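Appendix B. One record, verbatim.
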Amino acid sequence: MFIDVAKIKLKAGDGGDGKVSFHREKYVAAGGPDGGDGGRGGNIVFQVDDNLSTLMDFRYKRKYQAERGVDGGGKRCSGKDGADLVIRVPRGTLLKDAASGAILKDLSEDEPFVAAKGGNGGWGNAHFATPTRQTPRFAKSGQKGEEREVALELKLLADVGLVGFPNVGKSTLLSRLSAARPKIANYHFTTLTPNLGIVSVGEGASFAMADIPGIIEGASEGAGLGHDFLRHIDRCRLLVHMVDGAGSEGRDPVADIEAINAELAQYSPELASRPQILAANKMDVSCDPAMLDMLKSYAAEKGLPLYTLSAVTGEGVDELKNAVWQTLQTLPPVKVYEPEWTPEAPAPDRVIEIRVEDGVYYVEGAWVEELVGSVNFDDYESRMYFERALKNAGVYEKLEEAGVGEGDTVDVLGLQFEYIR
């Protein structure tokens, strides 16, 4: 099954907690604190894999979580860093922020991309020793790893896109020009998924061609296969527009060209303006010369090059291939999307909110959570450190501004204290 869109949740690893430990050794008095730091949490990394061609793997697994860092140990031993989680995707996958749709990264190159960073490890109590605080009985907790929901969208990296009504011979032409072997049969919608082939022009010269199925008049309203696969020609530098030049099904090739171009314009005006080459196929079938003359007049009027061929017999195929190659030399390279998402500015170290509810003053904020997690409330020195940290962060001033009074209850993440001026 061909899957080209997916939505997944990412959770980078949390950092390990710092260790509260003291040096114990025979004949060594007051060895002092020796708690080590926690390890860094693992990142979530995306890596291009050319052995993959769809996003099938993401159909059944929707949540990806990296390893947590190991807690610090005694004797100043730091915890082991959590392993990075590497997610492999096909080349050409767009990584987007699920909420805004902004592009985070176009995964078209070999360099790995870190989509979610692991949290830093917490400090052990060895960091908090001072001449006046020689036995700190507290350490810092590890920081949380980043979390985000992302959308994956595969856009094939092809130089040339084959477009046209069903059953005009696109798959046959692709199989004639490349090693691709799409299903070929004499009925509409034989091709149900995009096919990609590499067309060799000579030694060291080649281009990628994509056969895009299901575009018919009314596709934007859901007719046929709709616009589901048009994303795969978004990057194409050149469109080869195939028509049944023999009119073997009683269709008007000029009307077909106009109908397909109208659908392309409705999907993306930029896509509709891409350079096109007209390819009149099935010329091995007897046809009305007036129809071919009409097609030639239309091509001349629009300034479009027209090539006649038979994908079945191979007649005219080489001429089309060479024309495509020569046109590609004049066009810019395959489009690579620039990131549209910029990381939010990091929050100040000590963002604190005061909320008053039923006479209780609640102190909240990410920094407060980290502080509480690093304090041993059974230890006097640790409690003094907690109080100094709140004072230095301006918590008392904010409480005064909020109207706290003598004897009022202050709640710090569930820990309640009586306020004393």
